[in-house]
Design goal:
This protein is mostly helical. 76% of the residues lie in helices and 1% in strands.
Length: 478
């Protein structure tokens, strides 16, 4: 696990050295923050820094750094490289500067910031992109947790309704009433899960592919060809999905995610001091990178060193081996195209009863909390655009009711379409990274106008532009 441990050390140094460098470029000072200037008791509420950090971390994390890292491991140890470089030089910079830019502009949402520095036409485009992304998040993160809860008891549609009712409550109530109380607990649990798995990795020290094995990954993949049958299925998967740009779309949270720029303004409205921005915005992204690295290492062992044989019940192993290679038989990659199953097996096996509870939290609570803050962000973004004061509940409902109606339509379509979830998820992935492109170019223009060192965002902006354009062109051609 040499590459993994070096990557962990790199993240820590990235926060200490590069984080301080980016902070010095922006130049936070002691000016009063939006939460201090005009608290409204709903969205602008000064909260303790530790709580703001935990909420920001859970807002941006959810299941993203877990599921993305698991699926990204199919590309081999290149995933370690992308998580580390992406997190330090792109994702953390993106999150920190978008949050600080919001702080400097009275807690403004992403479309407002884009419009100010890139023009009104781009603002409208950004508004459409942001609302589509956030409504998609609200839709895709209802079905999967509802399915898990239904497997333990109750009807799936009943759980969909329960989760949706929670969405309504969390979106409309003041941020300190629901989100401010339960999010820190969920965030601590998510961090505890990652730390527990990290300790298990250190104890087990499994043999996993290293960065210098990138050019010899065929050896690892072919090791799981049994009697001419490819158990893993990586060769077929890689023939259909090139590392560039698919890996950079698959691993978003943990490296760089445009969704984060819609969340940072939520916490920009709750910070007491600008100088708290680096630990909250940059620090929460580095923490998310740690979670992603842990799951990248776990899943590398799971897929490439037959770790699945150690954590799956023998009955499940026998069922898999009996069907693989048959007509319509599934390889490991196809069997675990829902990463929640990997989380479930590993956590229960390595962390026992506590692990089972944390796995449940990861596949149920984390996506739900991503969904509710997505819809809260959507409400605030639309309120900024329409210039509607959100203190009166009536004005909150004016935006929320059409928004919830749109999510219900998406859920209905998804439920009636066999491939509905996959279709929505693919569009979510592309919209997510395209959003980061708009954000990075906006920050670059801001830094250029302020005569600051704009290369810190210009380089990742150009790279992510290439990723998003290549992905959509490939989809059109296909």
């Amino acid at each position: 696990m040499i590459s993994f441990l070096i990557s962990i050390g790199a993240l820590i140094l990235g926060y200490i050295i590069y984080g301080a460098f980016v902070e010095r470029i922006f130049g936070p000072d002691n000016r009063k923050t939006p939460a201090v200037v005009h608290p409204d008791g709903v969205d602008y509420i000064a909260m303790p820094t530790w709580k703001v950090f935990m909420i920001q971390f859970l807002n941006i994390a959810g299941t993203g750094p877990i599921f993305g890292a698991i699926m990204g491991a199919w590309f081999g140890p290149a995933s370690f490289l992308w998580i580390v470089i992406g997190c330090i030089f792109a994702g953390s910079v993106h999150d920190y500067l978008s949050g600080m830019l919001s702080l400097r502009h009275d807690g403004a949402g992403l479309p407002e910031l884009v419009g100010k520095y890139m023009g009104n036409t781009i603002k409208i485009i950004m508004l459409v992109f942001s609302m589509l992304l956030l409504l998609l998040v609200g839709a895709v993160f209802v079905t999967s947790p509802a399915g898990v809860l239904a497997s333990m008891g109750g009807d799936k549609m009943l759980w969909v309704v329960v989760i949706f009712i929670y969405y309504v409550i969390a979106t409309l109530l003041p941020i300190d009433k629901v989100i401010g109380k339960i999010y820190p607990i969920f965030a601590i649990s998510l961090i505890f899960m990652a730390l527990g798995l990290f300790v298990c990795l250190l104890i087990k020290m499994p043999h996993i592919p290293e960065l210098w094995d990138i050019n010899t990954m065929d050896t690892w993949r072919n090791a799981q060809i049994n009697n001419g049958v490819d158990l893993l299925g990586a060769n077929k998967y890689l023939s259909e999905n090139s590392i560039f740009p698919i890996m950079f779309i698959t691993i978003a949270c943990g490296a760089i995610s445009g969704f984060h720029a819609t969340q940072s303004p939520l916490m920009a409205r709750c910070l007491k001091n600008e100088k708290l921005g680096r630990p909250v915005f940059y620090g929460s992204m580095i923490t998310e990178g740690f979670v992603a690295l842990v799951w990248a290492a776990v899943s590398s062992w799971f897929f490439y060193n037959e770790g699945w044989r150690d954590v799956m019940p023998q009955e499940d192993i026998n069922k898999f081996l009996a069907q693989v290679g048959s007509t319509n038989g599934k390889t490991l990659i196809q069997l675990f195209d829902n990463p929640a199953e990997v989380v479930n097996y590993v956590c229960k096996s390595w962390l026992g009863i506590v692990g089972g509870a944390l796995a449940l939290l990861g596949v149920v609570a984390a996506p739900i909390t991503s969904g509710d803050t997505a819809l809260r962000s959507a409400r605030l973004i639309m309120a900024d655009f329409l210039k509607l004061n959100q203190k009166p509940i009536v004005k909150r409902l004016m935006i929320a009711i059409p928004m919830f109606a749109a999510v219900i339509l998406l859920l209905t379509w998804q439920n009636n379409n066999p491939d509905g979830f996959k279709v929505l998820w693919n569009y979510f992935g592309w919209l997510n990274q395209t959003l980061s492109v708009f954000t990075l170019w906006t920050i670059t223009i801001y830094l250029y106008k302020k005569k600051k060192f704009y290369w810190v965002t210009l380089i990742p902006a150009m790279f992510m532009t290439a990723v998003s354009l290549t992905f959509i062109v490939q989809k059109i051609i296909a």
